Amino acid sequence: MSYFVYILSNPARTVLYIGVTNDLERRLYEHGQGLGNAGKFTGLYQCNLLVYCEVSPDATQAIAREKQLKNWSRAKKEWLIAKLNSNWEAIDPRTWQG
Question: Among 23, 29, 47, 97, whose CB has the most other CB atoms within 10 angstroms?
């Protein structure tokens, strides 16, 4: 099973939310519907654009990576996003190639 570490942003690209999941499409749906604790944050700040995603082979590595990214500065997170997604366009998880 694969795990995904992902970053969501709002339309103005001013807020970042970092999360981890084993089912990216389901989790994005939950964020979009405001479900769960994370849904409250993403709903409040309209974080519904997937701008970054990476795959980890197991949950332990994914959680460690999520924690690492959460401790990074805003500038370093922006650098990481731009490295994969230079225009910060919304990524469609169904067609995303990684």
Answer: 47
